[in-house]
Design the sequence.
């Protein structure tokens, strides 16, 4: 299975858990003491994918879809039920001590830093765990301190850091040994927009400079749009999409929306007559704001614009691209990334009150939840190493 061109190779990977069934009442509890019943839960169902070296790939899905379980198998924390897995030329759960020196891991809801000591002391301990020479450690620490602006934080106890400061330190800790592959599980969870932007810019520059392969798991689709050229979408333990984010938008977005701010009120039927035969649909937000939905297969946006602006006095116009949050939410609802129904779903979104404003998330109940809840600590080559924290 080894292939020097790929950082990660997965073939027919499965993970099944045995979950105890608890019976009700005192009698049921007594029975459970002597004879327990278990059910089988398949968290990951025969998934296959490869990630080339140097790629930043997004790995997304609803809570419980199997994302963190996959990450734990890729980092050697869990042993697969079946299937083949290779990361950086190693089988993670078989060659763990040598393997973890080649990877870095950040779990957004777990810390690899020691809570009551200074950040730099945690870094020193991690240097010994990963057996990094003093010269290499100093060089790497100076680089990370400069690029992540850690100078004022190194001597503070971890418990005295804000969430944004701690996440910058967590990133530095995962990169001290200069890993070839970086696993990020919800690295920006709970962070403000300024810190998120700083972390995204750092990850992009690190990828460009060192060619680090990154597998990013997140519920924040702005992270995906800012960093990833490719996205793998998981639903109920199965891969339902693996490809470019732009292709997903094209397949499911199905069109654009033009919003016109009119100088004077115009009836909806008069606007419809202007674009008759172009295959577009109009809606009115108020007396002075009208929106037109332009499917990709309809007339070009430029033709629609010329007809409207040539006949109506317009104060302002904006073009709204397909909203990634809306697209992914619709895919989660259908459980498939096939484009059937994509046009209808997008058209309904735009005709029933318009699309979400750019940069804002939808009101979905699942796609904005915080984390997967089954994260683990930093993988380390020693049992008492950085992954020991709760």
Sequence:
């Amino acid at each position: 299975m080894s292939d020097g061109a790929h950082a990660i190779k997965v073939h027919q990977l499965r993970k099944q858990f045995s979950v105890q069934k608890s019976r009700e009442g005192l009698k049921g509890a007594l029975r459970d003491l002597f004879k327990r019943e278990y059910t089988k839960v398949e968290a990951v169902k025969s998934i296959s994918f490869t990630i080339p070296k140097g790629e930043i790939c997004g790995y997304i899905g609803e809570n419980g879809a199997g994302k963190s379980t996959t990450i734990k198998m890729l980092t050697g924390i869990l042993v697969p039920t079946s299937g083949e897995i290779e990361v950086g030329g190693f089988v993670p759960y078989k060659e763990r001590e040598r393997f973890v020196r080649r990877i870095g891991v950040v779990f957004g809801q777990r810390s690899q830093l020691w809570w009551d000591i200074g950040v730099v002391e945690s870094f020193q301990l991690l240097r010994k765990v990963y057996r990094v020479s003093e010269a290499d450690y100093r060089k790497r620490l100076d680089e990370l301190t400069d690029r992540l602006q850690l100078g004022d934080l190194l001597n503070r106890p971890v418990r005295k850091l804000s969430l944004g400061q701690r996440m910058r330190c967590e990133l530095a800790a995962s990169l001290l040994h200069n890993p070839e592959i970086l696993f990020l599980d919800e690295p920006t969870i709970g962070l403000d927009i300024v810190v998120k932007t700083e972390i995204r810019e750092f990850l992009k520059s690190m990828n460009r400079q060192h060619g680090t392969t990154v597998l990013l798991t997140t519920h924040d689709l702005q992270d995906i749009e800012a960093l990833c050229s490719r996205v793998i979408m998981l639903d109920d333990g199965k891969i339902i999409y693996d490809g470019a984010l732009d292709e997903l938008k094209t397949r499911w977005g199905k069109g654009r929306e033009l919003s016109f701010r009119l100088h004077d009120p115009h009836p909806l039927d008069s606007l419809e007559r202007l674009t008759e035969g172009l295959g577009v649909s109009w809606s009115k937000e108020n007396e002075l704001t009208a929106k037109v939905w332009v499917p990709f297969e309809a007339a070009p946006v430029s033709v629609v614009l010329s007809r409207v602006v040539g006949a109506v006095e317009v104060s302002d116009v904006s073009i709204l691209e397909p909203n990634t949050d809306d697209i992914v939410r619709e895919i989660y609802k259908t459980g498939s990334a096939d484009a059937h129904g994509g046009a209808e779903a997008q058209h309904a979104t735009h005709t029933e009150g318009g699309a979400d404003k750019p940069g804002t998330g939808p009101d979905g109940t699942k796609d904005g939840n915080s984390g997967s809840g089954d994260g683990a600590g930093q993988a380390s080559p020693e049992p008492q190493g950085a992954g020991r924290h709760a």
About this structure: Residues 361 and 370 are 14 Å apart (CA to CA). The longest strand covers residues 6-21. The two ends are 35 Å apart (CA to CA). Residues 193-210 form the longest helix (18 residues).
